[in-house]
UniProtKB/TrEMBL annotation:
This is JmjC domain-containing protein. Gene3D superfamilies: Cupin (2.60.120.650). It is found in: Cytoplasm. It comes from Wuchereria bancrofti. InterPro entries: Cupin_8, JmjC_dom. The keyword Cell membrane does not apply. Residues 110-208 form the JmjC domain. Pfam families: Cupin_8 (PF13621). Keywords: Cytoplasm. The keyword Cytoplasm applies. One of its GO terms (cellular component) is cytoplasm. May play a role in cellular stress response.
Length: 208
């Protein structure tokens, strides 16, 4: 109960915080890459999984937004994992082979209800944090080293992230920082800022 109260208190004041070892009982913590490749299925709408691709080398003054990224469309996460380990190739939508040595790949912002069966979604349990959040509304993000999202802030409520494997680096700004939007038209929920901040991702879940 003390953990629940602490989480609610932090969320109420929109204060960033990290809690360690609080989801060890999640069944999802036992997922391996091999299991994920079986659990995650292509969406019914397009029959494929989308991987966003970008260069590891950052050019000064250049921000690569998601609509400017190269994309690869694959039938299974197994191909993504094999590309990362050097066992398979990855072809982008411009028909070019992507070199994993100087590119990152990002399976980002995928709602679990689109790509997982209900019995697998049940392996995610936000009640461990005292949150009344339905796991079906969670999103999954899997990235190779260097994968990142451009600097932004979300204009709705709060985000809760569960790191299942690997690591992620966050760069936060003070509340009084001038975070003027850069893209027009402005997105309703995510507001991007003209700041270049490479952030490494691995494997996490998010709930809103």
């Amino acid at each position: 109960m003390e953990l629940y109260a602490a989480v609610r208190s932090k969320i109420e004041y929109l204060e960033p915080f990290v809690i360690s070892e609080c989801i060890n009982d999640w069944k999802a913590m036992g997922w391996t890459h091999q299991q994920l490749a079986e659990i995650v299925k292509p969406t019914e709408s397009n029959g494929s999984l989308r991987i966003r691709l970008g260069p590891k080398e950052h050019l000064r003054g250049k921000i690569i937004f998601e609509n400017e990224s190269k994309m690869a469309y694959i039938s299974s996460l197994e191909q993504f994992f094999k590309w990362f380990s050097g066992e398979a190739t990855m072809m982008a939508n411009d028909q070019r082979i992507i070199d994993r040595g100087n590119h990152w790949g990002y399976f980002d912002y995928n709602y679990v209800f689109d790509i997982m069966n209900p019995e697998n979604i049940a392996d995610i349990d936000w009640r461990h944090l005292g949150l009344d959040a339905d796991p079906v509304d969670s999103t999954i993000w899997i990235g190779t080293p260097g994968a990142h999202t451009p600097c932004h802030y979300d204009s709705y409520g709060y985000n809760v992230h569960a790191q299942l494997s690997g690591s992620k680096r966050w760069i936060l700004f003070e509340p009084n920082e001038n975070m003027k939007p850069i893209r027009v038209p402005y997105e309703e929920s995510t507001v991007f800022r003209l700041v270049i901040l490479p952030v490494k991702f691995s494997f996490l879940f998010s709930s809103y």
